[in-house]
Amino acid sequence: MRRIAISVAASTMTLSLAGCGVLGATGDGASASPSKGNDITVGLLLPEKANTRYDKFDYPIIRDKVAELTRKQGRVEYDNADADASRQASQMQKMIDEKVDIIMLDAVDSHAIAPEVKKAKDAGIPVIAYDRLAEGPIDAYVSFDNELVGEVQGRTLLEALGSGADSSDKIVMVNGSPTDPNAKQFKQGALSELNGHVQIAATYDTTDWKPELAETEMARAIGAIGKSNIAGVYAANDGMAGGVIKALKAAGVTNLPPVTGQDAELDAVQRIVAGEQYMSVYKAYPDEAQAAAQMAVAKVQGKDIQFDALTQDKVDSPTGKNIPSKLIQPVALTKSNIKSTVIADGIYTVGDICTAQYKAACAASHLK
Predict the structure, then answer these.
(1) What is the spatial order of strands in the sheet that 102-105 belongs to?
(2) Would strands 230-235 and 170-175 be described as parallel, antiparallel, or unpaired?
(3) Are the C-beta atoms of residues 23 and 82 closer than 8 Å to each other?
(4) Are 50 and 83 in contact (CB under 8 A)?
(5) Which of 90, 70, 71 is nearest to 81 (CA)?
(6) Adjacency order of strands within the sheet including 199-205
(7) What does the buried/exposed string (b/e) look like for 151-171 if buried means 16 or more CB atoms within 10 Å of the residue's CB?
(8) In 98-237, which ranges are continuous DSSP H helix?
(9) Cα distance between residue 144 and residue 327, in whole Å
(10) Distance from first CA to last CA of the chain, Å, rounded?
């Protein structure tokens, strides 16, 4: 995978290729002869509902961007598999049968969905892998540099432990689902930072990223290691971080160890303000979703210059090499940069975060 530079400082990222002179262009000299006009149908398949980002951010942003790019003539046909790989395969087959123009796929199981990707290809329907790299003949991929996400999590966890941390400090790792290729990359990135600096005392791969399983796994780790012997917890996303924190509290831990997360979910941002969760990874979903919509429309309309400008990275999957890709930069979200990330980007308002329960914590963090 081509690596991209990362900043763990606050940044508000704007996806713009206007400097390349292509995204603002029309078909006049900016593209090959379009194979379709504006009346297009984009099939969007998202993987789950436990993580609120998909319904709250990804789908609406993609829907609105497709409408904008097609003068409100294009539409998005959306379905969510609710973490059921078989359901997603059926949803994808339905879209193939309905002859949508392109499918944007965020796979529940990246390996199991490969036959449906092949069917789409055989039917002349391009497939863009969104957020997770599905197997099969994928036409393009848009996501974040997942190893860098893990590195940010691991590095920030070490920073939380302080300069006195050493290889005797025990860390619990609660990783993502084994059917999600991103989870493996997150873990690899985190381990590249943690190995040699701390002891990985327990590690779990959590089926379907379920918070309740993470809570059970953390309770098991507490029983095996001892609640006072856990220096920190690597939780791969915010939902599971919530389960980890529930288990720690249930065990009577009052001085919580630093816990990582990912996705900048509202509950997690509130836990960060309250000092219960140390960090999350903010991934600018508007950038990812807008890039995916731009790629989909450009691909369907035959605008090769725009499509190539959007996919200058390259990644490999178990079934494909040099897949045209767009990899977007993640940011470590801690108490210190909430204003300049999720608030500045319009993901949440201060009012969203600072509900009655968190008023005092918000005041202490100068969130007003």
Answers:
(1) 75-80, 41-46, 102-105, 127-130, 140-144, 320-328, 313-317
(2) parallel
(3) no
(4) yes
(5) 90
(6) 199-205, 170-175, 230-235
(7) bbbbbbbbbbbeeebeeebbb
(8) 114-122, 146-161, 181-194, 211-225
(9) 5
(10) 41
pTM of the model: 0.75
d(CA 279, CA 344): 18
Cβ(14)–Cβ(280) below 8 Å: no
Q: What is the CA radius of gyration of the chain?
A: 21
Strand pairing category for 170-175 and 199-205: parallel
Specify whether the CB–CB gap between 281 and 361 falls below 8 A.
Answer: no
**Contact, 42 vs 66, CB < 8 A?**
yes
Q: What is the pLDDT along the chain (368 residues), one digit of tens a residue?
A: 333 333 333 333 333 333 343 333 444 333 334 468 999 999 999 999 887 889 988 999 999 999 999 999 999 999 999 999 999 999 999 999 999 999 999 999 999 999 999 999 999 999 999 999 999 999 999 999 999 999 999 999 999 999 888 899 999 999 999 989 899 999 999 999 999 999 999 999 999 999 999 999 999 999 999 999 999 999 999 999 999 999 999 999 999 999 999 999 999 999 999 999 999 999 888 899 999 999 999 999 999 999 999 999 999 999 999 999 999 989 999 999 999 999 998 889 999 999 999 999 999 999 98
Closest by CA position to 179, among listed 212, 153, 216, 205: 205
Q: 193, 184, 182: which is closest to 288 by C-alpha?
A: 182
Q: What are phi and psi of 133, to 5 degrees?
A: -85, 100
